[in-house]
Hints:
By secondary structure, the protein is of the alpha+beta class. Helix content is 26%, strand content 36%. The chain has one domain: Roll (Pnp Oxidase, Chain A). The strands form 2 sheets. Strands 3, 4, 5, 6, 7, 8, 9, 10 and 11 form a 9-stranded antiparallel beta sheet that branches. The protein has a two-stranded antiparallel sheet with strand order 1-2.
Amino acid sequence: MMKASTGDLVVKELDERTVLRDPIQQFQAWYQDAMSSAMIHPDAMTLATVSPGGKPSARIVLLKRVDDKGFVFYTNYESRKADEISHNSSAALVFYWGELQRQVRIEGSLTRTSAEESDEYFASRPRESQISALTSPQSKVVASRAELERMFDENERRLRDRPVPRPRNWGGYMLKPSRFEFWQGREARLHDRIEYMLEKDGSWKIRRLAP
């Protein structure tokens, strides 16, 4: 069932009785809607992690794959986020698709993808992105932009006419979800919020939350 809102925006209802029973399938349906829209970077997601001292931090990363196992993104294994993940694998993701008045929150635990998976994805990246990954000491202090560009140019010259190897400190993470929350904007701020909680037997408990 659909309900028209102001302007040309059409807002869909979200009902705990009719959502898909598998939250990843529900996510994939919404993700396809976002990918089919005109929005920029529907694959952008906020990744929240926790420092060893218990302080939260968040940043935007890009979703590269989602399947029944979880959500995959790639980064530098020596970055701040990676350091935090090494101390506490619990993390959260947030997708916000404002044009569709939708948000998805996902909680779970992170593990590294295999070296083979990371190699395969790295090989698919544009060459300049590969060289940037090789060049950047992500999250570390650098003297200047000029220094970064100098290192980039040096790597570009060194590897001219040769494949760029995946740096050993670069690769993927997969978040295995244990909780989802789907939010659909509605009129009068009576928004729809549907929660999925993973049960011990592997099933998902579905319930409505107050907006």
